[in-house]
Structures are given as C-alpha cells and as structure tokens.
Amino acid sequence: MDDLLLIFSFFKKFPDQINHFKNYKGHDPDSLRSVSQFASFTTNVVSEFLDILEIAGDAGTLKSRAAQLVEDHKTRGKITAKEYDVRKPFKVLFRNLFFLSNV
Ligand code: HEM
Description:
This protein has about 100 residues and is mostly helical. The chain has helices at about 5-15, 40-55, 60-75, 85-100. The protein has one domain (about 5-25, about 35-95). α1 (about 5-15) packs across α2 (about 40-55) and α1 (about 5-15) crosses α4 (about 85-100). The chain is globular and about 40 Å long. About 10% of the residues are buried. Protoporphyrin IX containing FE (HEM) binds next to α2, α3 and α4.
C-alpha cells in the first residue's frame, strides 16, 4: 500500500482541506510530494487509520476510538467536530486501497 498515494488522493478530492495543514497550506496538491514532512505525516496518519481498522469489529470500542480521533484533532489542526467528517477520508482511503493499490 502506498501511504503517500492514499493521503495525496484525499487532498486531490478535497483541496480546500489543505488549508487546515500548516505545512501544506497554500500548496497545490500536486506539489505535496516535494514537502519534506509529507512522507512521515502520511505514514503516521495511515498507521493510525489501520489501528482503528483493527478494532472495527467491536462497535463499542470503535465508537470511543472514533470520538478520541475527533478530540485529538481539535488540537492537531484546530478541526471542530462539525468540520471533521470521518466518512470522507475513510471512503477515499478504501477506494484507493481496493481499486488503485497497483497505481
Ligand atoms: C481516518 C481519519 C484520520 C486519521 C487516522 C488521522 C490521523 C492523524 C494523525 C496521526 C495526525 C498526526 C500526524 C503527524 O503529525 O505526523 C493527524 C494530523 C492532522 N490531521 Fe488527521 N486524521 C484523519 C482525518 C483527518 C481529517 C478528515 C482532517 C481534516 C478535516 C484531518 C486534519 C488533520 C490536521 C489539520 C492535522 C495536523 C497537521 C499538521 O500538524 O500540520 N485529519 N491526523
């Protein structure tokens, strides 16, 4: 799996979201790969995403873990729960995981 491709596709699909990210603000999605922090950032996000996926079969744990993810983002990127729609990255990530993993 290509972590860079997964997060890159999120920014391509939701370019307005880039402005939440201090290191990438103002960048065109196509130039993100040249930003030094982008590689480690994508690895950290995908790693956390996979940790969450592992507990997806346990509805109660998943619910509290998802709530924690939203809470963490209030300080990470000043993202409010209203702005934060976890369904979008999940949809994009899964689409890439299953259909574009050979790109
Ligand atoms: C499955 C969903 C998501 C996961 C697992 C996740 C995970 C993470 C992780 C691990 C970091 C810290 C990365 C690092 O500093 O190296 C982070 C930072 C951040 N995330 Fe998320 N995230 C998710 C979705 C989102 C969404 C939907 C948004 C925007 C609406 C968002 C906005 C941010 C911002 C702004 C930061 C701070 C970046 C910075 O310090 O420049 N995240 N996220």
